[in-house]
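Hi everyone, sorry if this is the wrong subforum. Our group has a chain we'd like a structural model of before ordering constructs, and none of us has done structure prediction before. Sequence below.
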Amino acid sequence: INNVVLGLRRLNKSENVFYNFLKNEINTLTDDQIMLEPFRKLVKISGFENFVTVNIDNFLERAFKAENIRVNKSFNFSVPFPAHDPADRKDPAIACVFNLMGNIRGYDFAMTDEQSLEYIYEIQKGSDAFAKELFDAINQKDILFVGSSFPDWFMRFFIRIISKEPFKTSKKAKYVACDHTLEDRELLTFL
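Answer:
Right subforum, don't worry. Here is the predicted structure as tokens:
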């Protein structure tokens, strides 16, 4: 997505054209047209209170629905719009989904590496109600990262911001499960 948006910028095309196209395309996909099974398996694992995703799609929410598992309304971070409606109260007995890069069902979502960095920067400032909810939810919890395709440097930055503690003195366990982790010696050493 990043490369397509950057190509549109070079052609002096509006990002809104691609934004609206992408939003429409993802919204019209049926569960049969996407690979929902990995998400369905993930939501069936008991013991998770919070699901934090960097995907802009709504596949995780669709998996909860497909498995008939109740989940709180998703928290969709958004720059520059408000990310969280304080009137939305969560049920502590069921899981929460935090969409860190926004969501096609929300106001806005990150499409480029630059926008992703801005989203993480805004979250790390902690001034948004979304950030407070997120950090309260994962405080003192071990963290499992699944399926991120961030570049190595961004993954390190992202893990540090989300965990809110240095790695050398960390009390939380951090697990990364994605295609490239075992191949990336520097990332393994960092973790």
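For your construct planning: The two ends are 27 Å apart (CA to CA). Strands lie at 50-53, 75-76, 96-99, 143-146, 174-177.
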